[in-house]
Amino acid sequence: MITIRTLDNLPLHSGDRVFYRVDYNVPLEGARITDATRIEETLPTLRILRDRGAAIVIASHLGRPKGERKEKYSLQPVREKLAELFGCAVQWADDCVGIDTTKLKAGEILLLENLRFHAGEEKNDRQFADELRKLADFYLNDAFGACHRAHASIDALPRLFAKENIAGGLLLTKELEFLQKVTNISERPFVALMGGAKIAGKIEPLEALVNLADKVLVGGGMANTFLAARGVSMGGSLVDLDSMDVAKRIMQGEHRAEVVLPVDLVVADSIDNPTAIRSADVEGGYGENDKAFDIGPKTIALYEAELRDAKTIFWNGPMGVFEKEQFAKGTMAMARAVANASAITVVGGGESVEAVKASGFAQNITHISTGGGASLEFISGATLPGVEVLRT
Prior knowledge:
6-stranded parallel β-sheet, 392 residues, Rossmann fold, alpha/beta
């Protein structure tokens, strides 16, 4: 069991400066934030910090500017949204180093410009971390979505503070609590629902889950690869050829979980202008031009039955191209089934979070992780640098 220093452990006094590392890597359309969940999830920690009189210096990354200042990755839209959501003024710094924070008063909030405008952030550069260290007296991390990255503000920086002056915020603490309910299973049956376009990037989590779970239900493009590895002709469907050997290894290996694959899929000739949309059994049901874009009704019923009996559920990845209404039924049905299950339910970030929110069932999920890659790496048993540095 991993335990970290928490916000309650910080010996804060009124006026103390806190470097608050968050993950405000939010989706943008121009300057409009399309999903403010990652901002909203930090508000409880911010309220506590302000109530305790902290002078709050907020730092985050946004996108991949690759060490250069690029205005499309500026955190200015985030500053405006944070001020709106939190209901108070948020001061702005046009950079994240070389800033005088000594005049910041108790309860005031300062948002720094994008950390990744400096190459030293992603390089975990000690000199860059030294510059960040000058900005605060305490360090608090709520950026779970970045904790699997050994970056300066995540790894090098907290090591420059006294151990008693670093901690994880409420969000990071909550992430660890619920993800450890998945890795340290106490309530079974444990059913994992895995989807998304490809196996690549999810190999280690998959191999961990087949040894943790009782059943692993596979959907999305990932299922196409498993079916192809089993010898099923997939027509023109997306198949991750580079991961065929991984799929065969998982299906043929000795492990705890039963790997359950779709028995039918929704197919069409095209994703953009589909015609002749139909469900087809996976055995001999496809023409050479058919492309699979969703799980079919028989698979939906099969997976719903498995989820209904589960006591612990972990879900990562949609069951199909849910952005297209005609191919969203499988993903929406899984969101409803997960939400209605009498189980601990954890949704592991990424597109599955978007799907749950689109379904309208988000409020019924036990925990929705803010970190897609980080949650998968944690499930796989990988060491997360941002967590390790905070361990007690």
